[in-house]
Predict the structure.
Amino acid sequence: MEVLFASLCIEQPFVNNLLGKFEWHRMDPPISSDSKEVKATQNEDVKTSDRSSRTVFSPVIDRGVAEATLLDVPDYRRGVWVQAYFRLSFALSQWIHLLDPRISFETVFVSLSNEELDALLAMGRSLTKSTPPAQENVDCLALLGKRIDQSMAPLQDLSKQVFLKLDSRSPKDVVWEVRAIGEPLVREALEQRGLLHGDDCATVHEGLQVMFSTLHNTGLAVKSGAEAVSRLVNSFRCLEDLGALCELRKLDFPLDNAICLRRFDTRVASGNWPEFRAFVHANRLTAISQYDRRHNAKLHKAQEEIQSLLETFFAQYVQQALSHIASYIIDFAVVERQDDSNLLPETGPLAVKVVELNSFESWTG
C-alpha cells in the first residue's frame, strides 16, 4: 500500500518584527459541567460526536456508550461523558506500557486527588478573571508541587528539565497564549542564536524556524513542581481536559495517571529533525506529514529516507502492539544516534521515538 508523505516546501512570509507580531492573550476556561449552558447542549454533543467519528472510531465510541449505560450516566451528562471517555482512550497511560520501552520516553505518572483537581480548575478561573485565589487552593497546589518535585527527580538529567503533560494533552499553548511565560522563552531562543535584532528576510525566517522547532518542546520543559503547576493552570488545553476528568470523576474514574512527567530528550528539542504526524486507519499506516508548518531543507533532501524509516519502524514496533486501537494519529520524533545504543531501530544513523497518540479531531489532522 502506498503511503502519502508530505513535507512543507513553501517559504514563510517576511516578518519585520518577530516579537512584535505576537499577541499573547488568555482564553476563558471551560464552563463547569454543572452549568445550565452545558446541560442544555450535552444530548446534542453526543449526536455530533457520533456523526463525526463513528465510521473511524465506532469501537471506541461504542465502548464509551456501553460504559455510560452500565454506569447509569444521566442523559444530560452522557454527551460530555462519552466525549471525555473517547479522548482519554488515546491517553498516554492507555498504551505506553504496550510498546518496547526503547521506542518512547521514560515516564512517571502523578496522581491527582479530588481536592487537587478542583484546586487546579479554581486557580485557572482565578487567573482568567484576575481575582485573588482562595488560600486553600494556593496551599493545596503548593503541596502538589512538592509531590511533583519528588516524582521528577529520577527523570532529571544535567539540565534538570522534565517534559510535562497531562495524560491527555500538554500545556503547549502557554508559550503562545500567556505573555509572561512565552515572551522570555522566545527572547532566550532568539538571543542564543543572535537573532533577536535581525530584520532581514533570511534572519527572520530562520527565527521563525527556531521558534517552531524548539519552543514547541522547550516550552514544555519544567525544572520544578511549582513551575509545572503554573504551566497547567495557565493552559486552556489542560484546563479543558481537567474539566473533562471532572465528568469521569463523578463516576469514580481513577485519577492515578492524571499528570505525566517524561524524560526530556535534548535531541528532540534541538529541532535538527522535525516531528512527524502519521495517520493510521484500520491498523494500516496511510499518511505521514511533518508536524509543524515550516520548510525544512534537510528533510526535503532526505524525504525518501525518512519515509522508509518511519514505515519500517511502524511495521516492526507499533502496528501489532496497537492493533486493538485500529485507527489513530501517532506522532514520531526522529533523533540522530549518538553514543546511545538503547534506541530502535538498532542500526543506522537515525532512530525513532513515539511521542504520543491522538484521536481524529478537527485540530489533529
User: Anything to note?
Assistant: Strands lie at 4-6, 107-110, 162-166, 221-222, 259-263, 275-281, 284-290, 328-336, 350-358.
